[in-house]
Amino acid sequence: MDGTTLTADWDALLAARDAPGRLPAGPLGALFGPLLATPRAADGCLVVGRLAQTLDGRIATLSGSSQWIGGKGDLLHTHRLRALCHAVIVGAGTVRSDDPRLTTRDCPGPHPVRVVLDTDRRLGPGYGVFRVGPPTLLLCAEDAPGPDRLGIAEVLRLPRDPLVGGLAVPAILAALATRGLTRIFVEGGGVTVSRFLAAGCLDRLHVTVAPVLLGSGIPAFTLPEAARIADGLRFAWTVHSLDPDVLFDIALGRTRPGVCG
Q: pLDDT: is 120 or 231 the higher one?
């Protein structure tokens, strides 16, 4: 498929971002079209999680170095996900280690609202998401101290999850939905994506696997220990090339891993 066709297909996807429209039949439509479907969950949200990992399932070295596991194709894919979604979510650890901008600077399309999860308000105002750029929300626990703004970010206070810690994921989705942010991209890191997965709050999961072996490092997913292989979560996937990487698009439909009760 030539560049002109890919550009036209991407333009069609952007046009269908907030208004129903005809989706392209090519590879971009096959990959991104499901994200533009009408949400089926009761909370009215469609949630996609994404991680880039090595072949042995690591998203960073033990020291926290993660840039860049994926290649240029994965970076473009990430920016396209941002452009098609109303909000992009990252955890405090991702902000602390990467200081990301969370914009769509590498592809045409609108910037999403940036959402930072910082349960106990441990981040300072010096990070880029709190200083410049698109609208930003900081989500923290109801009992966390601090003012109602952090730099340019508005602070929203939500209940804690009493069982696994962090913020209650359903409360996060409800708070965003009330603001019209119903197509939600959970970009990272691994703990944040794992909490959405464990809560049964991911509709789709995009996992990029890079041709890299580390042999050590931070694992992509963190879930309760499984005693048997049968306790794992099995699913169907489709495979897409992000040369030199491989992308797995997994339709979860809010399925919750059995080990998460």
A: 120
